[in-house]
Amino acid sequence: MKLWLSDEVAVNKKSIVGIFDLDTVTVGKDTLKTLKRLESENKLTVTTGDIPVSLVLCEEGGEERIFLTRNAVRVLRRRAVRRGMQ
Q1: Which helix H or strand E contains 77, and what residues bound it?
Q2: What is the pLDDT of residue 45?
Q3: Which residues have a Cβ under 8 Å from the Cβ of 79 and sit 6 or more positions away?
Q4: Residues near 46 by beta carbon (within 8 Å), at least 6 away in sequence
Q5: Cα–Cα distance between 8 and 72 in angstroms, integer?
Q6: What one-character-per-residue DSSP string does 9-75 give?
Q7: Where do the structural domains in the chain lie, given as residue ranges?
Q8: Checking DSSP bridges between strand 54-60 and strand 10-12, what pairing results, if any?
Q9: Percentage above 70 pLDDT, the chain
Q10: pLDDT per residue as tens digits for the range 1-10
Q11: Which of 12, 23, 9 is nearest to 52 (CA)?
């Protein structure tokens, strides 16, 4: 099953490692390094033209990928749980 992060971007629920509040996680040095690394590897996708508020970390086939979305963490988690992800 998929979790829609925007009108055009969906991810496989099984690939989701975590859903995080962007303001909270970007204060850590390790997170910032990871964001910069994945951006340089073209593995960072911004799914909105608005200011993103959530970070969705996915891993599939040993590859990490980050999606930044305007949807709040609570909204994404509610959608995921309601549709079978726990």
Answers
A1: helix 73-82
A2: 96
A3: 3, 4
A4: 52, 67, 68
A5: 17
A6: -EEEGGGEEEEEEHHHHTTSHHHHHHHHHHHHTT-EEE--SS---EEEEEEETTEEEEEEESS-HHH
A7: 2-82
A8: unpaired
A9: 95
A10: 899 999 899 9
A11: 23
Q: 55: closest CA among 39, 63, 44?
A: 44
Contact 73, 55 (CB under 8 A): no
The 10 Å Cβ neighbour count of residue 76 is: 20
- Rounded CA-CA distance 34/17 in Å is 14
Residues 6+ apart with CB under 8 A from 83: 1, 3, 13
Sign, CA dihedral 64-70-2-77, equals positive
How many CB atoms within 10 Å of residue 56?
26
Radius of gyration (Cα) for the chain, nearest Å?
A: 12
CA geometry: angle 21, 27, 13, nearest 5 deg: 30
